[in-house]
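Observation: inputs received (chain + zinc ion).
Thought: call the complex predictor directly.
Action: predict_structure
Action Input:
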Amino acid sequence: MLEFLFLLLPIAFYSGWHSARKRYKKKNSDLTQNKPLVKGINYLLNEEPDKALAFFIQHPDIDEYTAETFLLLGNSFRNRGEMDRALKVHQNLVARPNLSQSQRRAAMFALGQDFFAAGMLDKAEAVFKELLKKSTDGNKQACKPLREIYEQLGEWEKAIEITEYESDKSDESNRLIAHYHCEIATRALQKGNIYQVNEQLKLALKADKSSIRVKSLRGDIALYEEAYAKARKIYFDVIKADSRLLGVLFGRLLEIADKTNNFEKLYNFLNETYQKFDENAVLEHLLEVANKDEYNILVKNEKPIVALIETELTHRKPGLKTILQALHIMQKLAKENDCELILLIKQALEKNLQGQLRFQCQHCGYKMNDYLWRCPVCRNWDTIAEATI
Ligand SMILES: [Zn+2]
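Observation:
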């Protein structure tokens, strides 16, 4: 695709040249002035990007037509990952004195994008801030990349500030602001600063009344304060509202079950949730709880659990992790003779599952081991769920 874009450059180049040609023709019909542009096109067609680059940089005249071509050339270098060349083109363009206001803005924006793509976030920030400062007509185009820079750096206060400045009060902006407050709250919780956690959660709720993350963090506060029954109830409510979060909260629910020596509540909750949502991930965790010997769940609920497994294996398409949990249970219930084969199947499945990552972005497919509220690849919020294996 990127190669394809680069191939289009000569066309864009030509179009710039063509526009320039028309303009000059109007003026004095003298096309000889555009000979250098033709030379530039030839360099690109002959795949000599350095010569094309040198040509552009040394080209004395940049008018409204050629500036566009210049911009596109730099963007194409960036898309090909050739950051040095992209930066040279755009820096040179920004330095030209005779650009119109909109051309200068486009050139600076492209330069900021180059710095961002090259990982030079401080320089990208400076360019976008400058752009925002110079924008006298209320253009807020630079807000979005600035927000992404602050997200990447974990500078949540600045992210809030820029989103509020940019804000069209849309649901999306409010959802982001709520996440940023939750990020600050999470940090405060790690330091045990419950007052700050609560303050941040209030602000998050103000931005997004329905934020499930705020609820989940309230559960974390209760867990931190060892109010286990309260934490459990909150987590159950969170999962009822969004079953996707079972994966990240399951470990905390196991901890609560351990601390309170009450495993039935978790088992019953998962059972109800499974009946309601009919989701593979819920079944897997339900069987995982049944497998814990110390919980004694299997002994007390052998018949319904075996019936459940039989139904699932017969009529559904359970994931590999669920099948593995089912095999664990069968192994525990099996007679000596059956056991060896079950053990072999179990080992084969375990090998198959080794190294599989637990969570996956539902937007771009990126997989990870730890739950994240924001995908590090496509940078979307709330798109991570347990990977279906
Ligand atoms: Zn993603």
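Thought: report the result.
Final Answer: Residues 361, 363-364, 366, 375, 377-378, 380, 383 surround zinc ion (CB under 6 Å). The first strand starts at residue 359 and ends at 361.
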